[in-house]
Amino acid sequence: MTADAIVEVIRKIALANALQHEGKAQVQSVLGKLIAERPNLKGRIKEAALMVQQVVQEVNKLSLEKQKKILEERWPEALVREKVEVTKKLPPLPNVEKYERVATRFSPNPDCALHLGSARAIVLCYEYAKMYHGLFLLRFEDTDPRLKKSALPFYDFVREDLTWLGCEWDGEFIQSDRLSIYYEHVEKLLEKGCAYVCTCPREEFREKVSAREPCPCRDLTPEEQLVRWKRMVDGTYAERKAVVRIKTDLNHPNPAVRDWPAFRIIDAERHPHPRVGRKYRVWPLYNFACGIDDHLMGVTHIIRGKEHLTNQTRQEYMYRHFGWSYPEAIHYGRLKITGALLSKSKILQGFRSGLFRQWDDPRLATLAALRRRGITPEAVRRLILDVGPKTADVTLSWENLYAHNRKIIDPIANRYFFVHKPRKLTVKNIPHKFNSQIPLHPDWPERGFRSFEISPVKGEASFWVSNDDLNILGEGKKIRFMGLFNFRVERVGKQLIEAAFHSEAYEEAKKLSAPLIHWIPIDTGIPCEVVMPDASPAKGIADDACKKLRLNEVVQFERFGFARIDGLNKKLTAYFTHR
Ligand SMILES: [Zn+2]
Hints:
Layout: H1 3-20, H2 27-37, H3 45-61, H4 64-74, H5 76-89, E1 103-106, H6 116-131, E2 135-140, H7 152-164, E3 171-174, H8 179-191, E4 195-198, H9 202-210, H10 222-234, E5 243-246, E6 261-265, E7 282-284, H11 286-296, E8 301-305, H12 309-322, E9 328-332, E10 335-338, H13 344-352, H14 367-373, H15 377-387, E11 394-397, H16 398-409, E12 414-416, E13 418-420, E14 422-428, E15 434-439, E16 449-454, E17 461-466, E18 478-481, E19 486-492, E20 496-503, H17 506-512, E21 516-517, E22 520-521, E23 526-531, E24 537-542, E25 554-557, E26 561-568, E27 572-578
Parallel strand pairs: 1-2, 2-3, 8-9, 10-11, 12-25, 14-20, 18-21, 23-27
Antiparallel strand pairs: 4-5, 5-6, 6-7, 13-24, 14-17, 15-16, 17-22, 18-19, 19-20, 23-24, 25-26, 26-27
Helix pairs in contact: 1-2, 1-3, 1-4, 2-3, 4-5, 6-15, 11-12, 15-16
The chain binds zinc ion.
């Protein structure tokens, strides 16, 4: 490939990259994409890196409009690439041609933080909307101030998680703002005789309905129903004394479908709503509010878990009462992730019992926890797109997510030494000073080096090595310090491990099949604590170069694993990502 041809490829990648980053292409990611696209350039990495630097500088001087224009004119395929990739992965939505514009919605109850399970609905709804140039709506379903009470912080958590996932929404609705709309619609149904206010004790109603018989309330006149409805709203009826039911088919094989409840009374004094306080005492139930909203908001494709299949059957009765047609509904199977807690009730229970205190506790599979651990949103997205909207149940493991994430962060994360549970090791007979330069990333030498200076005193120098390596450090064993020299272990004492210099060359270590271990010169480094996925701290020392790390940076501690930098002052705190 000629230099000119390479520059052209770099220009295309840099422009596309600039558009993703508000007009500023990033050298590292452009270089990464270049190598991914032209792997044979790996052998000319220094030359390529220089070219990337120059082109990126040039591209970043252009305005965003100009960047877009050039890309559109010369490499339109680079603009649509992402879309093509998704189209390939997701099966088409049914009956798209029936609708003017596809609209999907993600509709969480803000009573808990979102987790990996919720990511499926978000990513699928967002990607499908994008795939058809449609709308992706966010709707907060917060109409149960009693049992599934929402809390103010979660509204923002949800917005933060969607933004993090890169799933920008085109419209936002909050159901607790829409009570008057629901009231208006239920009044229509009551007037039309399609719904009724039932004041039967719950048990009596249940007996009737399981015998496929109407309760005495069902056939009262619409006028009487409306009087009863007023009594619900004005407080004449107390909590649990009346519900509005939607008429379905009393012979429906599933008793849960028969005349399902649409509104109930919730004591506003005891259960104020976090947003609207004590303003309402009559609240719509899930199927009513959701069904009304999907129609009014023009949702064309509902994408949700198959546990909602019965809800579709219920809502279809209401749609027929109104003369509406039900949107397309795609019900995907259950997604299990071995070892991940994806049950909302169990998560909430963990908070009540005090087991968890923070939503980003690494033991949780919340998006906040993944973020804190250094899992990238792109890895979550790829995982979800792999699974797609399959109707069969899917069981994944954490490793599936880690594999995606590793591919993304491995080229980005610089390498450092973290000596877990440090032990002192002294090497004697060191023949001279050593100045070890270890690249921050073996594939990207231009990123720079970590430098270690070893100045032996009377041929002796001491190091921190990890207690985890004790099984390798047997007496008589020959070992190589990564990037430094080879030594022979002489004595493993309780306090001190003694060793003698053996040789310098890496080839020698290879010949001896000496294991490589990492190390830190004693009297250097910074105390470091890595919070592990089980929330336990792994304590040790990180090398001096770590003092320059920045918050949120994802690094690889060699032979230990990837970690996200969470805090840096006198001590370095990191969250373990994965191996
Ligand atoms: Zn009744």
